[in-house]
Amino acid sequence: ELKFLSPYSYMLNPAENVFSKVKASAKRILSGLVGEQTLSGVIQESVGTVSQQDCANYVINMMSKLPIAAAGQPYVN
Prior knowledge:
Layout: H1 14-31, H2 39-47, H3 52-70
InterPro entries: RNaseH_sf (IPR036397)
GO molecular function: nucleic acid binding
Protein name: Tc1-like transposase DDE domain-containing protein
C-alpha cells in the first residue's frame, strides 16, 4: 500500500535537526568572534556540538512522527 507524503517532509529528516544545531552554534561563535578564525574552523567547532545523544533524540523524534505522516495527517508543530 502506498501512502502519500508531501514532496519534502522536513519533520521526517533528522539531518534537519543536526543542521539547525550546527547553524545556531556557528552563529553564536561568529557573533562573539575575537581574532581570526577560518570558516572551516567555525564549521568544525559547530559540528562538534552535536552529540550522539542529540542524534539519538532526533531519530526518536522522527520515529514518533511517522504514524502521523503515514496516516496522511498534516504535521502541526
